[in-house]
């Protein structure tokens, strides 16, 4: 996924004290610990990342927006240094558009000359006439900023500087007169006007006059009607966006529509962050835990948080997905959906947005958009899960398959977003683009077939590596999209012709198996999918495969399938992306080894179903693949869960009773990873390390939370065994129980959890009440 818009926070303080400002006045207070201004080192590294990203994706242009705080507080000399360096690093690689968002108070001829010299386009924040502007945009001492801003705007209107002027940004206050605000903005002859709704969430809803449920719709409709009556004298992005999306065009703004968001922020200290507006949700909400010194823009783009924001319809909650105006609204601004610990709600402005869209469509006679974008819908749930619902049901000793069902839905949306990110980076017309087109078609016709492949744990791990550019070799690049599409075509019985990557004479097809093409080396193979076979051709060799056949055949190593109840779990010893587990995976098992594994798994499944039916039910819903690990020299049983492979568990071969515990234990880690994709549970910026009973080395807070969650479940399994009189079970239960209880206390004391993290921890702790008998 290519990012094209980079917001650089060049100065983190402001000379105004607007009480609606999301930087200082809302939940996120990270500005307090950041440097006041971006240092030359941070700027150089950030510009380098932009250039690196533009070069890697062959981008024809990128935008860098200078933002704050107030960017002009940098002063002309530092601003010159910054712009010189930025252009020096980025301009040789791609066309660089530089913009700035300012309050306009410090605009002077000296600044204007400088900005003209470096071709910087300037947007100014103004909330309308003096009365409206004075409602919020004041100096710290309460004085009005209106005159100073108008002086700055007069400068920008001079013919010499007119080319710098990019528009006005107005935050709506429904107490102000809408038409007077509109007229006052028009007086400043802006090239464009942006109206923003004041930042708010379900936890901090916007102010509304008593008895008026949709004042923002009424206010904006009044502006819209006057604008139409005036003959649309200036572009107003909000209305233009609604008209465009009504005709299935792009929205042009992250506030509306289903377009993928491709914007990231660099803070003054070099941290990569998500869009600024998230600051309204909770402290630390925009954080990624990455910096320009340590991570590339590709790595930021590959994070699940950004992926979900590119997943279009699939990334929205149930209510929005079913909404008749979703193609125009898109659930509103992401930050405005926050409530009860997640972003799967409709916008807190939902009623206003719906009413406004209907009004604009009727007035403009625009047909309501019916296209929901290229992504397919996900299976609908009755309602969105709240954090307390999920956590409460998902702690020991019970387990809850419904929780996992919801997590699978979220994970599916994330993987779809990642795949779309891969597709966005493809050149037009190549074999990878053909694969994407086929996937999109199948998604429309037989979504369950696509879901079968998308929910394979190692499709996600490939997509993350592909987007981050961290893997090497053909299997790690976008060409593997062809292999994903072949698997979906086979799952749906759809004839197709595609190209797949070959590495060292092997072509892997996720969920299906590996085709051996000796002599093909590294390159590609042509695959023809027919209703009952696959013909894979490379280097004059054609292998004919009948998917679904169990045993190996010449040139074909099918992925083995372990049947449990009415479900199947893959014995995954071929997928190259299983290496994400970081422990040495077994090579392809011989038939006897595979049979032994299958028998052990089958027996372990029965043990889990008997001892902890709730957890077994969760495994039944969410476990997709088991990766056999090699026994290392120490001969100790090991198991692993990978952050980017929901539904996969890796383990060494062991007896059924131990394997049952390993599966429950590791699947808890799977669930925790899925929670972490939805909720921030730990303050990522706090480097505290905590001593725990189960490891010799102090652990980061997130790892401790993981350990607590997993060990609580293990303690529950051993408690059942102890209660049944299994010899030696009680001390094991006691050990896990005490480790967990002690770690809960240590983690609470460290005070590093978000409110949701604290809630989850408390629920786990409560589930331990009673402890050892
Ligand atoms: S109008 Fe409401 S329900 Fe419909 S898409 Fe927008 S926020 Fe979602």
Could you describe the 3D structure shown?
The chain is an alpha/beta fold and 773 residues long. The chain contains 25 helices and 23 strands. The strands form five sheets. It has a nine-stranded mixed β-sheet with strand order 6-5-4-3-2-1-7-8-9. The chain has a five-stranded mixed β-sheet with strand order 17-18-19-21-20. A four-stranded antiparallel β-sheet has the order 10-13-14-15. Strand 20 and strand 21 (648-652) form a beta hairpin. The chain is globular and about 85 Å long. The site of iron/sulfur cluster has 13 residues, from helix 11, helix 12 and helix 13.
Largest sheet: 9 strands, mixed
**Helix-strand category:** alpha/beta
Question: What is the mean pLDDT?
Answer: 86
Tell me the span between the first and last alpha carbons. 54 Å
Q: Count every helix, treating DSSP H or I runs of 4 or more residues as helices.
A: 25
Hetero groups? iron/sulfur cluster
Q: Which residues sit in consecutive blocks of at least 5 with pLDDT less than 50? A: 369-384
Shape: globular
């Amino acid at each position: 996924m290519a990012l094209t818009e980079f917001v650089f926070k060049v100065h983190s303080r402001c000379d105004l004290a607007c009480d609606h400002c999301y930087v200082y006045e809302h939940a996120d207070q990270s500005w307090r610990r950041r440097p006041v201004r971006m240092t030359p080192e941070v700027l150089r590294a950030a510009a380098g990342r932009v250039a690196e990203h533009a070069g890697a994706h062959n981008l024809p242009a990128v935008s860098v927006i200078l933002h704050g705080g107030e960017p002009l507080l940098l002063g002309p000399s530092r601003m010159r240094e910054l712009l010189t360096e930025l252009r020096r690093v980025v301009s040789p690689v791609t066309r660089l558009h530089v913009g700035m968002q300012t309050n306009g108070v410090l605009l002077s001829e000296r600044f204007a000359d400088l900005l003209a010299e470096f071709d910087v386009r300037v947007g100014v924040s103004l909330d309308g006439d003096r009365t409206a502007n004075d409602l919020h945009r004041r100096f710290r001492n309460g004085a009005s900023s209106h005159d100073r801003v108008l002086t700055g705007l007069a400068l920008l209107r001079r013919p010499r500087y007119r080319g710098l002027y990019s528009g006005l940004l107005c935050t709506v206050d429904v107490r102000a007169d809408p038409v007077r605000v509109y007229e006052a903005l028009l007086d400043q002859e802006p090239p464009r006007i942006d109206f923003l709704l004041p930042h708010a969430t379900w936890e901090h809803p916007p102010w509304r006059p008593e008895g008026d449920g949709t004042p923002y719709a009424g206010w904006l409709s009044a502006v819209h009607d006057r604008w139409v009556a005036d003959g649309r004298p200036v572009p107003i992005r909000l209305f233009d966006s609604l008209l465009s999306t009504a005709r299935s065009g792009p929205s042009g703004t992250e506030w509306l529509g289903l377009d993928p968001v491709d914007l990231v922020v660099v803070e003054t200290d070099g941290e990569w962050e998500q869009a600024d507006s998230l600051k309204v949700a909770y402290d630390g909400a925009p954080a990624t835990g990455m910096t320009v010194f340590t991570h590339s823009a590709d790595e930021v783009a590959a994070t699940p948080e950004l992926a979900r924001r590119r997943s279009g319809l699939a990334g929205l909650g149930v209510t929005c997905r079913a909404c008749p105006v979703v193609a125009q609204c898109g659930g509103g601004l992401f930050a405005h959906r926050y409530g009860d610990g997640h972003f799967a709600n409709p916008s807190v402005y939902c009623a206003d947005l719906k009413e406004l869209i209907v009004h604009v469509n009727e007035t403009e006679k625009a047909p309501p958009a019916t296209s929901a974008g290229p992504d397919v819908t996900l299976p609908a749930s009755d309602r969105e899960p709240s954090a307390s619902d999920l956590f409460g049901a998902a702690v020991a000793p019970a387990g809850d398959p419904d929780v996992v069902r919801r997590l699978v839905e979220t994970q599916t949306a994330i993987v779809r977003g990642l795949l779309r990110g891969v597709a966005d980076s493809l050149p037009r017309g190549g074999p990878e683009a053909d694969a994407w087109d086929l996937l999109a078609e199948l998604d429309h016709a037989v979504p369950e077939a696509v879901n079968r492949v998308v929910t394979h744990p190692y499709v996600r791990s490939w997509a993350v590596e592909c987007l981050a550019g961290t893997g090497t070799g053909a299997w790690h690049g976008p060409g593997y999209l062809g292999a994903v599409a072949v698997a979906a075509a086979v799952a749906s019985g759809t004839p197709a012709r595609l190209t797949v990557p070959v590495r060292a004479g092997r072509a892997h097809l996720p969920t299906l198996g590996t085709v051996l093409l000796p002599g093909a080396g590294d390159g590609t193979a042509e695959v023809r999918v027919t209703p009952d076979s696959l013909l894979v051709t490379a280097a004059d060799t054609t292998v004919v495969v009948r998917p679904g056949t169990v045993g190996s055949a010449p040139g074909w190593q099918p992925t083995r399938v372990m049947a449990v109840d009415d479900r199947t779990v893959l014995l995954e010893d071929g997928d190259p992306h299983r290496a994400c587990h970081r422990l040495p995976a077994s090579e392809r098992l011989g038939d006897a080894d595979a049979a032994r594994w299958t028998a052990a798994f089958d027996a372990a499944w029965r043990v889990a179903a008997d001892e902890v039916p709730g957890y077994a039910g969760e495994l039944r819903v969410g476990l997709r693949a088991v990766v056999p690990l090699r026994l290392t020299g120490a001969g100790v049983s090991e198991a692993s869960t990978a952050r980017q492979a929901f539904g996969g568990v890796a383990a060494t071969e062991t007896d059924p009773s131990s394997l049952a515990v390993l599966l429950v234990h590791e699947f808890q880690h799977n669930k925790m990873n899925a929670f972490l994709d939805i909720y921030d549970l730990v303050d990522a910026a706090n480097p505290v390390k905590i001593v725990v009973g189960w490891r010799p080395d102090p652990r980061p807070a997130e790892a401790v939370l993981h350990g607590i969650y997993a060990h609580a479940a293990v303690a529950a399994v051993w408690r059942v065994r102890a209660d049944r009189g299994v010899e030696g079970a009680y001390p094991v239960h006691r050990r896990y129980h005490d480790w967990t209880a002690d770690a809960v206390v240590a983690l609470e004391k460290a005070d590093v959890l978000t409110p949701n993290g604290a809630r989850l921890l408390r629920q786990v702790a409560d589930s331990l009440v009673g402890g050892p008998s």
